[in-house]
Amino acid sequence: MRIALLSTNYDLGGAAIVTLRLTQALRALGHDARMVVARPGASAGSAIVVPKGQWLKAFLRERAHLWLHGVPRKNLFKLSTGLWGCALEQDLFVASADAIIVNWASQGFLSLSSLKALIAIDKPIVYAMHDLWPATALCHLPGTCARYTENPLCHGCPLFSGHRKYADRLADRIAAEKRAIFSADNLHLVAMSSWQRREALRSAILAGKEITVIPHAFPIDFFTPAPAAPDIQSPAKADGRSSAPTGTEALPPLHIVMAAARLDDPVKDLPAAVEALNILAQEQPALAARAHVDFVGTIRDTSPLSSLTIGYTLHGPLDADALRRLYRRAAVVLSSSKYETMGATLMEGMACGAIPVTFGDAGQADIVTDAVNGFIAPVHTPASLSFALQTALLTAAELREAYAESAAADNAGSTNGLAENLESFFPAALHASVAERFSPESIAARYLKLLQ
Predict the structure, then answer these.
(1) What rounded mean pLDDT belongs to the chain?
(2) Is the peptide bond before 225 cis (omega within 30 degrees of 0)?
(3) Is 128 helix (H, G, I), strand (E, B) or coil?
């Protein structure tokens, strides 16, 4: 089968990366799958790149249009109109493909008129929602804004600082076009998580539309548990602090990894994580003395970390190998996000053997089953998150001590002697839980079934 996967970027950003993984998985299954992109990145591989001038002109025209009609510069990349783009229906590979998968193709790449032209060719089209743009008039991620669920839809958009009447007319126009486009029989929507599907169906644009949940393809062969026994050395000093005071040196350390592209993005709710960790230090001082937090990602405002009473290291951005090493020695991978479409860091840490701890408000619940392969805080408060974190650390401590005992009995790596209710938290079991649900091969097979 010839499959065209439309994506603005080849390998820049999370949506592009998971699209690349899906493309590679489809090719591994014997299909002629190729990405059609506007921006090739470091290496376009087998991708088809549209003429740069064609995309750049559309991109600049759309940004200028938004700016001239009341969208401040800080919000310019939070919206797309779909009024301008490349004539992708004229691309030879796209036109001859047996099926099309639309991924994140906004900001001057795939216009609404081009999408209508592709639908008219009458071939199977899957629209993979890497955000909620199909459900809103203009924005990609509405967050706590519920205007996309109202009638009229998206009036009074807070991302505009002026031209309010024009913004409302524009929202009406785009919403009407999307409603017609997404009602086509040969176009099927895919959500990345159950939460995203629920949020999308709240929109009048997509009300009653069939939406299938297929998660991201995950590189399960790269994120794997450490082949050797867990590190049982004392945690090193970091940022001038030691997280292992006298009397705990012989105990295995309990590393907690919290990673994000930008740690102080408001969605990641770093203050809630810090408060949860400080509650841990107050309520479980002996456990906290063994704990050490590894923060990974860029951060503009480090002030929330100044009040943290547990030892930590701020690593900044790390490459994939360095991040994998952190996950492999970690006891817990922590997310305090208010919502995640999926939750890539939870999947990465879990596949490497770390116990995931998170709120369950959104896509995280598709990854973590509470008390089975991780722990979910039932209420979005630091106290609730801290209780889940404490439970995970106590579980990890028991596992590591059992591991050390089995190693002393020359049975390193054996799960013999572990309490039956802890076996699902052993690194190999956590990895298997991710592999069974999110491997590229299994995700590609689900897309093929939908297309066929």
Answers:
(1) 89
(2) no
(3) strand
